[in-house]
Design a protein that fits this description.
This protein binds to 23S rRNA in the presence of protein L20. This is Large ribosomal subunit protein bL21. This protein has one domain. It contains no helices and ten strands. The protein has a four-stranded antiparallel sheet, with no helix packed on it. It has a four-stranded antiparallel sheet with strand order 3-10-7-4, with no helix packed on it. A hairpin with a 4-residue loop joins strand 5 and strand 6. It starts with a strand and ends with a strand.
Length: 102
């Protein structure tokens, strides 16, 4: 069984036991998080939400919070001696999906 959930402005396909990375949720490690915005549940029976599936939830356990690898942002305006270099590390939360209730 799998489900498509919405979190952090993104839609993610999840299955039980899967490790996923989502936008930072601001919760402690080993907490249980419940997602109510379930857009689709697939498996033996298919449930499609309009926009969400009523009564469906996905529970996941928080493994850790961290920051992704650094990316470099470089702005340049040709012939104007304008250069700006900046780094960015996106914060994330790592989860392990425990159950999908449909």
């Amino acid at each position: 069984m799998y489900a498509i959930i919405e979190t952090g402005g993104k839609q993610i396909k999840v299955e039980a036991g899967q490790e996923i990375y989502v936008e930072k949720l601001g919760v402690e490690a080993d907490e249980v998080v419940t997602f109510d915005k379930v857009l689709f549940v697939g498996g033996e029976t298919v449930k499609v939400g309009a926009p969400t599936v009523a009564g469906a939830t996905v529970t996941a356990k928080v493994v850790k919070e961290g920051r992704a690898k650094k990316i470099t942002v470089f702005k340049l305006k040709a012939k104007k001696n304008y250069r700006r270099k900046q780094g960015h590390r996106q914060p994330y939360t790592k989860l392990v999906v425990e159950t999908i209730n449909a």
